[in-house]
Amino acid sequence: MRIRTTVTTVLLLAATATACTGGGSGTTGAGASGPSGAQALTLGTGTHWKDVDGDGSHISATTTAVSYTQPAEGVRLPTNLADFPDSEWAVLEVRTCADADSTDVIVAQSPWTLRLKDGTQVKPLGLKGYGVPAPAYPVSAGTVRPGGCLRGKITFGVAEGSRPDIIVYDVQRRPAVTWSVPRA
User: Fold this and answer.
1) Which pLDDT does position 46 carry in this prediction?
2) Calculated CA dihedral for residues 123, 150, 166, 67, nearest 10 degrees
């Protein structure tokens, strides 16, 4: 059973809702079809989005799924933290760069999931620190200042022998963006 705290969950939801409300836009590229029917991007390709913050100010950035590694070396966690028996670790590296004219962009691991071929969604472990590859992407409420970037790793537990086909970045009230996972 995965250990999760209510406080962290509430903070993640509040941070995501605060920084990512409104009807933003994103770019798409060629590849497999994602949850919204749009074509999935290739790893390393960014998606630029614009939004309106909760106070009405402009917020915009480019978010990129940089790389995906499975099985991931360097993860030192008990296997019972994963949702699957006989699991192995996967690491997704992501980057968010705020536009120079944007207000602060709040980022977190929670909008990122992996989609398996059978439709199963795998959520991030929501961990950082000992046992997780560094640098970890913020678990909740990481701040990217205007003109700055933040890059980090997100750890997932997936069923051994399975591999996701799609990486999903799904922020409330914006179309989901997807990236294709290359074959191993």
Assistant:
1) 98
2) -120
